[in-house]
Design brief:
alpha/beta; Uracil-DNA Glycosylase, subunit E; two-stranded parallel sheet; two-stranded parallel ribbon; 6 helices; 9% strand; globular
């Protein structure tokens, strides 16, 4: 899963992209909308007790974003993501060349990574961004599509 929005608040930042600190009692809006979509479309999904997403990592779900730990309130210039762009492109290219994967690209910035993905080995699900394109995201059934594509590769996603 690759996204393109920084954290809204400093207290949300954790060591896992899109996740939050274990001590947080409420998920960031992005994660809340992802969970709501999963609850509505994937019958086996159970909302975790925390919002750290370590369970996803342990199940082989890789999470990444273009901003790493920058918050919206940080005084860094908007082009900050350019510092990470070549790294993320190379990382995605390496992963997709190494073995089959399903990439979920959240939002227009993440969708630009598609050119770096070896689609002869891997699959791509383009996802409307859950914050800015919520109505489209809500109807997208992107997690069902990711589950189907993962099954075609011989794996199972445990959300």
């Amino acid at each position: 899963m690759v996204g393109d929005m920084p954290y809204k608040n400093t207290h949300d930042i954790s060591d896992i992209a899109s996740g939050t600190k274990i001590s947080n009692h409420k998920p960031p809006l992005l994660l809340e909308r992802i969970y709501a979509n999963l609850e509505n479309t994937v019958t086996s999904f159970q909302r975790p007790l925390n919002y750290h997403l370590d369970r996803w990592l342990n199940n082989g779900i890789f999470l990444c974003n273009f901003y790493f730990t920058q918050t919206i309130a940080d005084p860094l210039p908007y082009h900050y993501h350019l510092l990470w762009e070549s790294f993320i492109n190379n990382l995605v290219q390496y992963i997709s060349n190494d073995h089959p994967d399903v990439f979920m690209l959240f939002g227009s910035k993440a969708i630009t990574l598609r050119k770096s993905i070896n689609e002869t080995k891997s699959s791509v699900v383009e996802v409307p961004y859950p914050i800015y394109e919520y109505k489209e995201f809500k109807k997208s059934k992107c997690f069902c599509k990711a589950c189907e594509l993962t099954c075609e590769l011989g794996f199972t996603i445990k959300w």
